[in-house]
């Protein structure tokens, strides 16, 4: 019988010695970028710089290690093998990743309370680059090529009673670049709706700045025509005690790829991110989101729901949540649910949760993809409701959970109708 | 006056171990105004009978018949059975996310009656029925069964029973999991619906407790997929004292030699 001493039981180098690079005594791989006290690329003076990843020792698989840059040249041409492009049919990007985006950008018309400021600004405006930095080649291509930007500002302490509508109407199928900046100043409160309509091939960068104590809801609706191709990077920077609610709805378009992100820059922030998508035959609807818990005591909640029907309807959902070492007291949950209504549809769902500190309130993730629950149908039909009506009720109910989050009655009604329209297609 | 007639019903389910017969020849006749209690130990097939009458796809009828006033119920789809007047209060009502109770109740009532209920009287009826069952008014805005406690779900089943006014109500262990107060409220609801004189009731239960509040005219004892004994309310009293043990001994049939046909 071997006597096990404490000395023998100890695995790895004694603590006085340096560890193997990237490993700690516990064997975890903590990123040195965090240990060094630096935060997200956007926090502090680093705003205009670029990074080629997280630095030495940050594993490629970590979201902290993602390349970010304002310069297109820093991103290699896409092959489709990249982790963040592996689900996207590059051919159908119609040049957004490879061509100069010199086409006519969709027109932007902003309506809302008169207190809101709307400006058309040039590339050198000081607000550009304060909340966003491209994280992929298509976004960087738009950054390289956009001619001018629209800046919408909700003045400090102003509480908008009606929503701000940003109507983005595509009129050309030449690949184009678009740039929007939304600033919710201190203690303001507003709902901003981005209505994407028409036909366009466009890569769009949306920067969202939620200043201290502000409460901003951004609703981005993709109701494009069938021929549209749209990539939209929507990056939000959330200040102290500020709150962002981001609601994404993708219904139309041939290929729509929305990549929303929320970065906390001071404690007390809160982010709610909701999504709804309804993919029909041949449609590719992709959503990849990122919540960066870079500071302590912030909360995030993510729920994306999708319905798919028809041959080669394809939905992709990737949710990255990163809780950095300094983000103690974090409370986060993310979930994705997909309902497959017919054969031939495909949903890819990847929830990623990286936790670099154990001192958190909670962290969870969930994903489920399946067919309609027979027990739901049985219950409704056992009450006399015919099968087709019951099916519609279940799908409508499934997606309603997201629509109910919008809380702008006119939009809720319109989306309910849009969902009804999609469901009418199922029956045919 | 309506009649729900079940004749020599054999029902099986598919399991991983193959086909399993659960009901082995059940015959039962229920008429308007009658209350039948079906009692029996766990696994005796009571709930299978309830689900089969309602048309749950899991259960295969291999032989026998179910008719409602001569119409073949087994030929009907689930929703057709409900519209013909069969109501199943479920043992485990499912949650239907995103569908509000208000919307659900109105949609179902419209389907059952073949026309939309008059909005003013309907709203009033729903409100009154909810009050009598002590269901909070805010339940109307909530999603079907979502986040309801076990007792709340059962009350909402009886709410539907009172609103839809079926010809035959099948209560599948509606009493299980209820405390005494909830049991009383639920029983009162069933008795109200019954008192209108247009409904027959099939009450499925494991316990005799609910029979203190809902008085059965007939009691049928189920063991191993068959009716092993039948009688009047006095049979329930005897079961309360003796339990099901005497049926289990001698494989049921021996202990109950006289199986009366209904």
Automatic annotation (TrEMBL), chain A:
InterPro entries: Fe-S_cluster_assembly_SufBD, SUF_FeS_clus_asmbl_SufBD_core, SUF_FeS_clus_asmbl_SufBD_sf, SUF_FeS_clus_asmbl_SufD
Pfam families the UniProt entry points to: SUFBD_core (PF01458)
Biased composition regions of type Basic and acidic residues, renumbered to the chain: 1-10
GO biological process, one term: iron-sulfur cluster assembly
Region (Disordered): 1-36
Annotated SUF system FeS cluster assembly SufBD core domain residues: 176-398
Annotated family: Belongs to the iron-sulfur cluster assembly SufBD family.
PANTHER family from the UniProt entry: PROTEIN ABCI7, CHLOROPLASTIC
Protein name: Fe-S cluster assembly protein SufD
Automatic annotation (TrEMBL), chain B:
Keyword GTP-binding: no
PROSITE patterns: ABC_TRANSPORTER_2
rRNA-binding as UniProt keyword: no
One Pfam family matching this protein: ABC_tran
ABC transporter domain ranges (all copies): 4-249
UniProt keywords, alphabetically: ATP-binding, Nucleotide-binding
Domain of life: Bacteria
NCBIfam families registered for this protein in UniProt: sufC (TIGR01978)
Family to which the UniProt record says this protein belongs: Belongs to the ABC transporter superfamily. Ycf16 family.
This protein's name: Fe-S cluster assembly ATPase SufC
UniProt organism field: Pseudarthrobacter quantipunctorum
High-level lineage: Bacteria, Bacillati, Actinomycetota, Actinomycetes, Micrococcales
């Amino acid at each position: 019988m071997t006597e096990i001493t404490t000395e023998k039981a100890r695995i790895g180098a004694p603590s006085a010695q340096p560890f193997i690079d990237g490993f700690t005594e516990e064997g975890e791989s903590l990123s040195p970028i965090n240990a060094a006290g630096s935060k997200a690329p956007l926090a502090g003076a680093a705003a205009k710089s670029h990074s080629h990843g997280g630095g030495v020792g940050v594993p490629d698989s970590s979201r902290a290690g993602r390349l970010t840059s304002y310069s297109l040249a820093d991103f290699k041409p896409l092959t489709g093998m990249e982790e963040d492009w592996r689900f996207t049919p590059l051919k159908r990007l119609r040049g957004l990743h490879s061509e100069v985006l010199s086409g006519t950008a969709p027109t932007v018309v902003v309506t809302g309370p008169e207190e809101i400021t709307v400006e058309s600004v040039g590339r050198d405006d000081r607000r550009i680059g304060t909340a966003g930095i491209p994280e992929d080649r298509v976004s960087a291509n738009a950054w390289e090529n956009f001619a001018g930007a629209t800046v919408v500002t909700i003045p400090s302490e102003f509480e908008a009673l009606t929503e701000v509508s940003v109507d983005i109407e595509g009129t050309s199928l030449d690949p184009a670049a678009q740039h929007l900046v939304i600033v919710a100043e201190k203690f303001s409160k507003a709902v901003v709706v981005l209505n994407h309509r028409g036909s366009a091939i466009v890569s769009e960068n949306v920067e969202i700045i939620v200043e201290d104590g502000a409460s901003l809801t951004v609703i981005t609706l993709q109701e494009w025509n069938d021929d549209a191709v749209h990539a939209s990077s929507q990056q939000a920077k959330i200040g102290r005690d500020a709150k962002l609610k981001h609601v994404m709805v993708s219904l139309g378009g041939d290929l729509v790829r929305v990549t929303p992100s929320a970065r906390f820059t001071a404690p007390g922030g809160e982010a709610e991110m909701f999504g709804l998508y309804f993919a029909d035959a041949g449609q590719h609807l992709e959503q990849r989101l990122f919540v960066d818990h870079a500071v302590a005591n912030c909360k995030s909640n993510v729920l994306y729901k999708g319905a798919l029907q028809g041959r080669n309807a394809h939905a992709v959902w990737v949710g990255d949540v990163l809780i950095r070492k300094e983000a103690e007291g974090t409370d986060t949950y993310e979930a994705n649910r997909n309902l497959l209504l017919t054969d031939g549809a495909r949903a890819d769902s990847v929830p990623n949760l990286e936790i670099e500190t154990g001192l958190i309130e909670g962290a969870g993730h969930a994903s489920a993809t399946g067919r309609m629950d027979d027990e739901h149908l049985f219950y409704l039909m056992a009450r006399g409701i015919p099968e087709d009506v019951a099916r519609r009720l279940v799908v409508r109910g499934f997606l309603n959970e997201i629509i109910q989050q919008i809380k702008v009655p006119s939009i809720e009604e319109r989306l309910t109708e849009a969902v009804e329209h999609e469901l009418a297609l199922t029956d045919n | 006056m309506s009649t729900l007639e079940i004749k020599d019903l054999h029902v099986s389910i598919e399991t991983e171990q193959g086909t399993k017969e659960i009901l082995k020849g059940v015959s039962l006749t229920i008429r308007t105004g009658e209350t039948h209690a079906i009692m029996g130990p766990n696994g005796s097939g009571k709930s299978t009978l309830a689900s089969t009458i309602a048309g749950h796809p899991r259960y295969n009828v291999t032989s026998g018949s179910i008719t409602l006033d001569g119409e073949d119920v087994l030929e009907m789809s689930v929703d057709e059975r409900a519209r013909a007047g069969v109501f199943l209060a479920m043992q485990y009502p499912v949650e239907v996310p995103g569908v509000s109770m208000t919307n659900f109740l109105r949609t179902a009532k419209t389907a059952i009656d073949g026309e939309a209920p008059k909005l003013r009287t309907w709203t009033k009826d729903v409100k009154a029925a909810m009050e009598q069952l002590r269901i909070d008014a805010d339940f109307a805005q909530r999603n079907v069964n979502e986040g309801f406690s076990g007792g709340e779900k059962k009350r909402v089943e009886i709410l539907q029973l009172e609103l839809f006014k079926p010809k035959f109500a099948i209560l599948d262990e509606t009493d299980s999991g209820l405390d005494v107060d909830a049991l009383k409220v639920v029983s009162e609801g069933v008795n109200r619906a019954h008192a209108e004189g247009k409904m027959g009731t099939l009450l499925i239960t494991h316990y005799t407790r609910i029979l203190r509040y809902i008085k059965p005219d007939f009691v049928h004892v189920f063991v191993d997929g068959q009716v092993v004994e039948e009688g009047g309310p006095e049979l329930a009293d005897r079961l309360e004292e003796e339990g099901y043990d005497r049926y289990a001994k001698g494989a049921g049939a021996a202990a109950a030699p006289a199986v009366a046909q209904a």
